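In response to reviewer comment 3 from the previous cycle, which asked for concrete evidence that the modeling workflow produces usable outputs, we include below a single protein chain processed end to end. The sequence was submitted unchanged, and the resulting structure tokens are shown without manual editing.
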Amino acid sequence: METPSPVTIKGMAISMLARLGDPAAAKGTSSTLSDRLAYLLVQCKVQLVILDDFHHLIDSDTDRVLSTVSDWLKVLIKETDIPFLVVGIEGKVERILQANGQLSRLFAYRETLEPFAWDESNETTKQVFAMFINTAEESIGMPLQTHLKRSELLHRVYYATDGVVANMMNLLRHGAFLASNKDQTTLDLITLAEAFDTRLSKHLRYKVNPFEDRWGKTFVAPEDKLFNPVEGANNRSRRRKERLPTSGEVLKG
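The workflow returned the following structure tokens.
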């Protein structure tokens, strides 16, 4: 299994320069790359820098915060005077900032991104979720099918994804890919069921597939129960053994 490469100053500078379209993004020392990055961020009039997977500033091997990289980032922010938004795993981002007081002061505003909610007794939660799905449909360029009531279909999407944005986009993007290969213009239940099996079922093993035909027109979510494939296989194996005759019975026959 591949492990993430350690985050380095040079690696971050190269990555950011490449995003800015620098044709020589990988040429130079860490110092020259950093200077060029700061210059281009200002000259290109960048309004906001978003750094995803910020938790990778904790070394996976030593579990230590990469202090040299966090110091470099602090200097870059101060030199460019550009807003930076960092995104990462809750708890780890806070730990990185706590390890560097000066960097921490540059991120005074912090927010936790919670999954979307779906509460049958709270219409607002359903409306907010529906608005996000509308935006997602526009983003992937393919709407959900209309054979079911919209509220019923959204309920299934919510159940399948737990309201987590990454899960929803994985489902819808892969569904759109499958649908386009079938020359479809909408995401139907069959395609969503296939996308769920391919992209989410192994990750969310306690979920049933809510897009299968067996649910009819109204899906009622069963109690979440983790399915153990090994245990299931063992049970089936035992049942087969129970049906088979013993060697003694065969010889007697």
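Confidence is low (pLDDT under 50) at residues 227-253. We consider this sufficient to address the reviewer's concern, and the full set will be provided in the supplementary archive.
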